[in-house]
Each structure stands twice: as C-alpha cells, then as structure tokens.
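REVIEWER CHECKLIST
Item 1: Sequence provided? yes
Item 2: Single chain? yes
Item 3: Sequence as submitted:
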Amino acid sequence: MAGIGSRSELLNLLGDVKARVQDKIGIVDFPMPQFILIGKQSVGKSRLIEALAGETFNFISGTLGSRRPTILEFRNVVGSKASRWFVRDRQTGHWNEHEVSKVMQLVGDAHEELGETVSQEPICVRVQSPSCVDMQIVDLPGFRDFALDQSKQELCTRIEELVMTFMRDPRNVMLCVEQCGDAATMSTLGKCRQIDPKFQRTILVRTKLDKYYTDLTKENVNQWVDGFGDLPENLVRFALTLPWWQDGEICPAESFVKMRDEFNAKDQAEMRDRQLKPEYMQTIGFHAFGVFMEKKIEHMFADAINPVLDKLRELKTKYTSKEQSLQTEYEETDPHRILSTTRECGISFASALRSVMEGIPNLSTGRMTLEKELKEFHEYHKKLGSDHFQMLPSEDFMGLDDYIDYLQNDIQIGASDAEVNGGAQFRRVMAEVEIFLRFSEIAVETKKRDVIQARGVSMSSLTWRDVVVKLLSNEAHLPLQRRVQYVGERIKWFFQIQKDSVIDFMSSLEGNPSEKMYSSLLPKNVKLIKQNEMIKHLVFSTYDQACQRQLNQFIELFDNMLTSTFANPWVFLKGATYTGYEDGDTALPSLDDTKDRIPKEIQSRSSIESKLSEWLLGIPTDSHQIDEAVDKVQMLVLKTYSFIRSQVCDQVELFAESFFKLPMLRRLEEDMNRIALSDADKANYKARRDRLEGEVVKVKENLKEVAECTERLQAFKLKCQAQRAR
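Item 4: Structure as written out by the authors:
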C-alpha cells in the first residue's frame, strides 16, 4: 500500500464489501478481520476511542450502558478542515452524514431500544478527519462486576456472553484495555488468556500511565513494563496516558488533539528519564500505539484481499448454480408443462430406484444396520398402532432386543452389523423374514375331540386324508398367514425408506464420472424434486401408493397360494427332482444316461406324497382304536405342517421377488406417468411459481452484488501491484 490514501481506500473498500455481502446477501461467515475493543467499565475505553477519532464525543447509552456492538470506522483525510460523521442506516445499508450531536442521539437510541436485552446487530459509525487514526474497531459493551438486582445481573450475564462470542471468533483481534497496575490482577486479560492462551490475537493496552510515574524508578521501570514476569514475552502491549481534565471542566474540541500529543510526549519523556530500554520505548505513548495499529490493520486487511476474493468467487459459483436451478424450475412449472414435468420427475425417480436396487457403491444416505432397521420398523408400526400381524416370531422372545441378539449371535445373519441400503439391504431383509417365518408353529395342540369332530358323525364318512386337511386349515393356516403379513409389511417398509437413498443417488450423478452411464434427466429432475415441495409430494405420494398396492397384491397372492396349499397339501408337497449327478462326475452325461435319469426324476417328484400316504394308511379305522388313531393324526398334522412350512420358507424370496419387487419396479414408471393434478395442486403450483419469480430476482441481485464487489477488489489489487512495481 502506498501512503495513507491507499490505506484509507483499502479500509473503505473492504468495509463496504463486507457490509454489502453481510447485509444485502445475508452471509455472516465472511473472512474479514476486525479489532474488537474489550474491557471493564471505566478503564478508559471511551477515551481511547476519542483519541483514535481525534476529537471528543459522548455516546449516550442511557442508564444501562451499551448493549450492542458499535462498529467505528476512522478514516484519516489529509487536508480536510473539519471532521465528518456518518451513520449507516440499518434498513437500507446506506451511509448518511449527520451532525455529531445527531450521531450521538442515533447511537443512544439504538442502545435504548433494546431495554434490558442485548443484540449482536451492530450500529455502524464512520468518522472522516485529519486527526484520526486510519483503522476500524468494534466497541463492545464493557464487562460489569456489580449489579443492583436480579434483572441487572441477568443483563450483565447476557453482555458477557455477547462479548465472549466476539472474542471466540478467530478472525477478531482483541484490544484488551486495562488500567496500569499489577498484571496478575488484570481480569479482562485473564478472559483473553482463556480463549487465546498463546496471545496470538491479543493486544494489551494499559491506560492511565501517568498515575504510576511516581512509583517507577530506574531500577524497576523495565520490570514494570514487562509485568514483573506476569506478562508473556510474545504479548504485544502498550502503556499510555489519554487526555483527561478535572471533573466539571469541558475540554475545548480544538485542544483535544493537542492534549493527546502533549500526554504522549510526557509519557515518552518520563519513561526516557527513567532509562527505559529502547525496545520498550516503542510500546509507550499513544503515537506508538497509533502507528502500530495503522500498520497492523493495513497488513491484516491486505492479507485479507485474497481470502475475500476467494469467498466472493465461491459465492458467485453458488449463486450462478442456484440461478440456473431456479430458472429451470420456473420454466418447468409453466402451467402448460407442469403436469408433464411432474411425471418426468416421477419417471426419473422410478428409473433411479432400479439402479439403487441393483447396488450403488459409496451411497451413504439411508444406510443402516439390521438392529437399527428393525428398531425403526417396530417404532414405525408402534406409532401406527398396527396389530394385524405379529411383531415377534415367537412369544418365547423377551422382546425385540432378544430377537436381534438371536439373529446376530445365534443365526449370525449376514451383514447384520454392516450399514447398507438398496439391493444389499433387500437381501438382508429376505434372510430375516425367512427366519421369522420358520418360527411358525400350530398354535394349539390337536385334541381327541378335534379329531373326532373333523371325522364326522360316522367313522366311515371321511378319510383320514380329509381329516388332516381339515385340521390343517383350521389350526395351521392362520399362524402362517399372520407371519406372511409381517413379511409383506417388512418389504413395504423397506421400499418406503429408500426414498432418501434414491434422491441421494440422483444428486450424486452431477459432475460424477459415472454420470454418462445414466439418463441425463436424473440430475436435472432431482433438483426439481428437492426444490419444489409440490413435485416432491406428488412423486413420493405416488410411490407410497405403489408400495401399498404391491403389499395388497403380495398378501392376496400369498394368501391364495396358502389357501390352495392347505386345501390340497399333497400336490404342493411333491419333492424336488433328482439331479442325476454323482459326486466326482466331471464329464457331461451321455444320451443314454439322460434317458435313464428322466423316469427317475418324474418318479421322485411324489416321494413326500408317497411317504405321507404310507403314514395315512397306518392310521387305524376301527372304533376301539380311536386313541391310537388320534395320536397318529396329531403326528401326521405336525409333520405335514412342517413340510409345508419348509417349502414356503424355502421359496419366500421367490414369492417376494415375483409378487412384490418385480411388479413394483416394472409398474412404478407407469404409475408415475398417471400422476394427475387436483385443483389444489394447481393452486399450490401457481403460488410456488409466484415465489420462484421473486427468488430468481433476489438471486440475480445477489449475483450483481458479488460481481461488483469482486470487480472493485480486483481493480484495487491491480492498482496496488502497479504502485509497488514502480
């Protein structure tokens, strides 16, 4: 930076950029350094500010003192005859020039309107004067050690929390104001030490040095400046005397700067007379402090240009992308295109679901372990109050945790501890529901009365085959049916929780190397789904309806299969065909081997049925052998049910694929293509379109602000580089 003109221009430029970005765009996290002035009441903070400004003034903060930050921008204007005061309007963001008395009133009103509360929203004041130091600071409310009542104590607490918030911000350099005295008793410095233990962004300013002239001698002055060992060597510190006058007197405005210079000269002379070391003399007096602050803030702000430019470029990229997304949504929500747009989004969602079910690596959204999955499933149906199916496979389990422990430790179900989603999660669901089904048992013991009643009034009216079928239908059908309902609900819930995973997959395609493997509509339409709540609602509602429809069809088809099975279990229980291969066979079978195998396979299909028929023939038919007949019927019912249960459990994944998953994936696009808009949907779309129009305008305004700020900073940077090159 070349001279005061460049420094003032830099401070003005960065200050305006920060104000525009924070107030007009609403970006709080902006990489701009600033000095914050902290200290207890009556330690000389206000007089230090007056010294920096080069004139006296008095901010009227009422009886409760200051309760919000005051940002003070001091601009040294060489050659100007008088100071000029400006206050930044908190509504418009414009700087308005006022008389000093009016500025004091505006600042006081800003504090008084808070009552006994505090606010982080600052009041901004700018002073242009030939006598001020080129810098800007944030004056914070002073720490308070005493309160008259509970309400004042609460105000003290809130003020301390406000100040500590600013102190914790790593971008803020703390000007810690303390009275000259014992360094070990400096309470504000102690607070700084807690937050900044290495004092990397703390500057100690000790005021009222003149009170200690008589205590300082040639022997102790160097130790006193050094804090008698209580101040770390790396802590930047200054000691100075600020202008003061007797109570009741008024300092003439034209003599304040003169008094500031006189006290500075006296500080220098007194410490020089006491033979203070030259390196310590650079920390004595207001002028030394002012020169240090001008250089410090110049370097800090110069170093901030590149981070600020990077932040502005980041904002430009963000708002450009947002403008494109909003513009696309605005065009796609045209009343003449909205229905087709919604259907397109739904079809893209259905297409992405198929990909997720096939398995997508590095897709983190929606992943869960088996334990989390089962607990969330139970919690979901607990809230719904579901009682139409069994939540646990057996009453012998003490609860869900007991069942989960059984799955993880006894069965050791695959990937139970792994967080998965999509197709991998579906495979795990299939393994869990198969185990759940295998716990199915006939609910009651078959009694002699049940067997006789099923046989009829005459011992020869029905065959034992018919009796077994009756008993199975009455006692075994319902337990298995209720567990099948559990299977259907688990699959339905699995599909319902895949929404976030599908959306995440669609979003991840943009800029991804695998983007070309999928439809270009996926990343485009997912933005519409995420931005437009109406489209999202319609797509998700249609998806949920498809899940419910497939559940109903799954239950209906499975029930039909169970009904036919229990109506004629002997046909259902034909065994699997014989493979015809022996262990150790390595060559393909010959034609003769194949001809020999086929009759054996056909014959083996009825192996279980033949065995059951053999057991049926062993049941006595004489009346005096009824007890033996009942025992054998009970045995036959249990064995037949175990065969049916095993066959159903072995094929549950086939049923789930055939009756639920495949119809779901195949018909979902068709469902999405039939989305219709109600009058309420059309009205909501119109309201959304009206809001979009305003959002597009706002984003364009933000882009304009960012572009102008970037252009000004880049121009200033080039100007400074050109000056250094001369």
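Item 5: Key structural point noted by reviewer: The radius of gyration is 42 Å.
Item 6: Recommendation: ____
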